[in-house]
Amino acid sequence: MSDRARARRTVVVLPLVCGLLLAGAACGGDKKEKSTGEASPTSSIEKQKFAKTRFVANAGLASGAAYQWIIKPYRNGAFKKGADGRTGALVKAGLAGVFTYNRLKAATRNAQGDPTLSKALAPVNAGIDSLKGLGTKLRKGDATDSDVNSVDSVINKVKDAGKSAGAPVTDKVPSTSELQKG
After folding, report:
1. From 6, 37, 125, 158, which residue has the greatest number of CB atoms within 10 Å?
2. 63 part of a folded domain
3. So which residues are the signal peptide here (predicted)?
């Protein structure tokens, strides 16, 4: 195999493998998690750290997707009728809405592994559930100011809950292929 072919294969395969590894870590792997609504304290400090780490990863992805493909384009007028690139912006926003909801639900499940984080996030659960139909509204172009503001509000509450529990969340913008995978 020539050096050029080897370099091409590396450029294609390496990001794919890294993406799969990161997606598995961010999604919590293959483990089935119980959703009881209450904190389930763990017996070891390591499990608590992993719960916080997974929470931060999932909440960061949700926050990054919401800001990059929903909040920022909406405030810039990308969703208004007649705007250049409106259809593409609406499709990406729809995917980002579904992705954001899924990552926030995963972050909620991760938070149950840490008692402090679970208690801090409990008041936000209703807000997360209210985002369920957001992807469809965005894709159809039916989203209003209050829909977009509610996304922003829920994201900020999740970030505040994480910060108060010692798990500060920073935005991590997922790629468009990550959005498509959900």
Report:
1. 158
2. yes
3. 1-28
